Amino acid sequence: QTGQTLSAYDPATDGASARLRMTGDLRDAIAAGLLEVHYQPKVDPVTGDPLGAEALVRWEHPAHGRVSPEEFVPLAEHTGLIRPLTALVLDAALTACAGWRHLGHDLGVAVNLSARSLTDPGLPAQVRAALTAAGLPPDVLTLEITETAVMSDLRRSSGVLRELRGLGVRLSVDDFGTGQSSLAYLKQLPVHEVKIDKSFVMGMADDRADAAIVRATIDLGHALGLRVVAEGVEDLTTQSLLAGWGCDLVQGYHVSRPVPAPALSQWLAARST
Ligand code: C2E
Ligand code: CA
Ligand code: CA
Ligand code: CA
């Protein structure tokens, strides 16, 4: 063995004991307040005006380095840690949003919900308490849900969704186009927004099929009275195409990577002068 290399946690090969250790580490990190939340702006593709920001959770593991939320969010879902994780992200996001609004930026914030949270009957009360604590009206909060999450337990999740909708928060269908029977569910779900999955957006400038899917989704969303967001916008060509097709909002590395709340405040200040 030469030297020390930081190895990333890999749930596919690391096995049950590593998973158990990671779960313990995650529990400690949540309890110690060591998870961070970064924010990525959603902007009008024509004017560049920021209308909101998506909260994305971050975990810097002391030994493994940054662990992807694609790994630890599912881990949290299966080990009872998703409720405290969601609470942490909600509180951070609403506090950050209250801060931006205090500085004069008329901005909303979006939080991702996992499948497990959508069947948690305590979630609506948790959301209401977080809004009250931050002193924010419900319509500044958007909750991003995936179709797959809703589908995994439709009966219970639609009850929670209706209650959330009743609170006055906005609902967004994330990763649109990657699930099954997307069209039928858009009609049935009480949502305000669809986000076109980045797998289509990242390819659309070079791929006719991706471009056709993106255009059709924009038109479909508008026909249903929804706001349409494209995620994964990595270059100006893509943003210009989306602007021409009437896409309401864009999000992606071309505009900004996800950054800590103070960095987003600076970004907002630089834009508004
Ligand atoms: P998502 O909700 O679809 O989030 C979009 C992902 O795309 C984020 O990855 C973001 O950093 C990344 N992204 C943004 N712009 C671009 C771009 O221009 N190009 C490319 N290639 N990627 C871009 P991230 O932060 O690693 O999050 C991955 C997933 O983890 C999220 O996918 C979401 O499903 C989940 N996640 C993240 N934070 C939370 C959270 O607080 N709660 C829950 N339940 N899930 C979360
Ligand atoms: Ca999302
Ligand atoms: Ca997404
Ligand atoms: Ca995703």
Give your account of this protein's structure.
There is one protein chain. The chain is α/β, with parallel strands linked by helices. The protein contains twelve helices and ten strands. Strands 1, 2, 3, 4, 5, 6, 7, 8, 9 and 10 form a ten-stranded mixed beta sheet that branches. Strand 8, helix 11 (236-244) and strand 9 (249-251) form a beta-alpha-beta unit.
Brief synopsis:
This protein has 273 residues and is an alpha/beta fold.
How would you summarize the topology of this molecule?
Layout: H1 15-31, E1 36-43, E2 50-61, E3 65-67, H2 69-78, H3 82-102, E4 108-112, H4 115-118, H5 123-134, E5 141-146, H6 147-152, H7 154-167, E6 170-176, H8 182-188, E7 193-196, H9 198-201, H10 208-223, E8 227-231, H11 236-244, E9 249-251, E10 259-260, H12 261-271
Parallel strand pairs: 2-4, 4-5, 5-6, 6-7, 7-8, 8-9
Antiparallel strand pairs: 1-2, 1-10, 2-3
Helix pairs in contact: 3-5, 5-7
This protein binds ligand C2E and calcium ion (3 copies).
Protein name: Bifunctional diguanylate cyclase/phosphodiesterase
Organism: Modestobacter marinus
Domain EAL: 19-272
